[in-house]
Specification:
Blueprint lengths: L2 H15 L4 H13 L18 H13 L4 H5 L1 E4 L2 E4 L12 H8 L8 E6 L5 H9 L3 E7 L2 H13 L6 E5 L10 E6 L14 H4 L15 H13 E10 L5 H10 L3 E7 L5 E7 L2
Parallel strand pairs: 3-4, 3-6, 4-5, 6-7
Antiparallel strand pairs: 1-2, 7-9, 8-9
Helix pairs in contact: 1-2, 1-3, 2-3, 5-6
Length: about 280
């Protein structure tokens, strides 16, 4: 079988199954199985496939058709132009979360130095990206899962920021001191009652700990905003990823804890995605 034949076979099956991005999924999975750059797939479509590589591509195809996301199949996901390894304890980083990173970077001078804290760091995608883009900062990366922290530490090493990356296994900020410049987080914010109705790519493959925001979907924000009000230095900032219908609640909580300069930023789809504020 030739490369082009295999790609079109996988692509057509993905199209027939109703996947949202069948052509892209097929390109990425076939390229990975054959160890061929995605950009070279078309140029090499007349080449014969080495023995065994087609079987790997077809195994990837089966996993994808059974609902496993591409990132889970490959064990990694692109985020902000970098690759991040995943494991069973980490959420697969989404493009919407890049809105949070953009918002923080726009408010942090590249020449500044300071300390940030990423609560619920997971794979470390947010924390590592911020460190890579702002070399004067150090990061305290907090997660309740040791397995997630191991993954995040590996990603920090992969992107050469491990010397400024400090993993802490804790429940929120229970063991941290005051004086932080930034608190950032993409906390669990999905209501418990709707978890079962989520797409199977999410509820069967993402860790529940990173999704379940309690009965209201807002429980994590109560804790994080209250803690940040104590831990941030005067002038320090907080940046939180939020659900599309949670902006009013977050603004109310931030005002209640004395924050000022409150902003809500929309993602590329036009949905409220990030809440930002400053400690006076």
């Amino acid at each position: 079988m030739r490369i082009g034949q295999l790609y079109r076979q996988v692509r057509d099956r993905f199209r027939q199954s109703g996947l949202a991005t069948p052509d892209l999924d097929a390109r990425v999975l076939v390229s990975a199985a054959l160890n061929v750059p995605v950009s070279a797939l078309v140029l090499r479509e007349d080449e014969d496939i080495p023995e065994g590589n087609a079987d790997r591509a077809l195994a990837y195809e089966t996993l994808r058709l059974n609902g496993m996301p591409v990132g889970r199949i490959l064990g990694e996901r692109d985020f902000y132009g970098r690759k991040f390894a995943l494991n069973a304890a980490t959420l697969e980083p989404r493009p919407d979360t890049e809105t949070l990173v953009d918002a923080v970077l726009a408010r942090v001078d590249p020449q500044e130095a300071g300390v940030m804290c990423d609560i619920g760091t997971g794979s470390g995608a947010i924390a590592v990206t911020l460190l890579a883009e702002r070399p004067g900062y150090r990061m305290i990366a907090v997660d309740l899962s040791e397995e997630a922290l191991q993954c995040a530490l590996g990603n920090a090493a992969l992107h050469d920021v491990e010397d400024r990356f400090n993993p802490v296994c804790a429940d929120y900020t229970s063991c941290l001191g005051a004086g932080l410049d930034w608190v950032v987080s993409n906390p669990p914010y999905i209501r418990s009652s709707v978890l079962a109705g989520l797409d199977r790519e999410v509820n069967q493959h993402d860790p529940l700990l990173a999704l379940d925001g309690g009965d209201s979907g807002l429980e994590a924000y109560l804790r994080i905003v209250a803690d940040a009000a104590v831990l941030l230095r005067p002038g320090g900032g907080i940046a939180l990823e939020i659900g599309y219908d949670q902006a009013d609640y977050l603004k109310k909580q931030l005002r209640h804890h004395g924050f000022v300069a409150i902003e809500i930023i929309k993602d590329l789809s036009g949905n409220d995605r990030v809440a930002l504020a400053r400690k006076p």
